[in-house]
Amino acid sequence: MxxxxxxxxxxxxxxxxxxxxxxxxxxxxxxxxxxxSEAASGGEDEAAAAAEIDCRAIDVIVPYAPGGGSDxxxxxxxxxxxxxxxxxxxxxxxxxxxxxxxxxxxxNAEPDGCTIANVVLPNISNLSLTAGEDIGFSAEEFEYxxxxxxxxNIIGVATDSEFQTxxxxxxxxxxxxxxxxxxxxxxxxxxxxxxxxxxxxxxxxFVPVSGGVGDIVPQVAGGHIDAAISGFSLLDGDQVxxxxxxxxxxHEDFPDVxxxxxxxxxxxxxxxxxxxxxxxxxxxxxxxxxxxxVQDALQDEAVTEAYAETSFIVLEQDAAEARSYFExxxxxxxxxxxx
Length: 339
Hints:
11 strands, D-Maltodextrin-Binding Protein, domain 2, five-stranded mixed sheet
């Protein structure tokens, strides 16, 4: 089912939030029994009972710095998710290690639905595939709730950059081997740059930034780095403009910006996707409840308007589709790494 309305699962959400602990610390058994009977009877008090359940706050882990793509995704959905869940979202930035600090925190969290994290592909797959057991988690072991959006990866330059086109950038790199710089988010940025180098043959110097896109944009806009590669979050604030897109399909919002394929450099295929994950071994009913909440939030008028102001491609997935999407992108990342 493409969209599940939250009213179907409010009773299950009440159980989840009660498990996280109420302010009085009272047992959840009576709440569970009451919620179950209301769900079965379809009683008029169902929504009111669910609204009374307060999980203090639902912890949302953002594994990158404020201002980047992960932060932008969560902030776009925050108010609508709070309305859908009936609980306040406590957003915490647990950055470091190319996202591994935050994802390790999620891997060690209780699988009770009260801790959730933003997830980014191919970042989490790249970490898991290259570091193995040393990273502290496996990308496959998380419970995938839903991916909400994706974008082609772009090479972005400052709005006043001398590079007007991809050909300008490649020519400069060829004329000055190693002197043209391009930044990206940690090891994932290096993966994306390697894909571009393999397609174009140009000699550029990669400048990794671990905090996230929010830390990269000022460096590019200020002329300290010539370009950056990431998703459309680079364009937030209109300080960066794209000169090339990954993938094989042109984007209607950027009719004058070619894909690498169109420019004659096939093989730049990776895209960047954002979503939500839960700790390993989270019960399926909790995963389904969270998926319904996310889908409900995506239908919120304010959220729809917020996405309309971006160029992201919005995704609507059930939990099974989210898992399949992860597995597909995970395999594409494996191939890009040559594994």
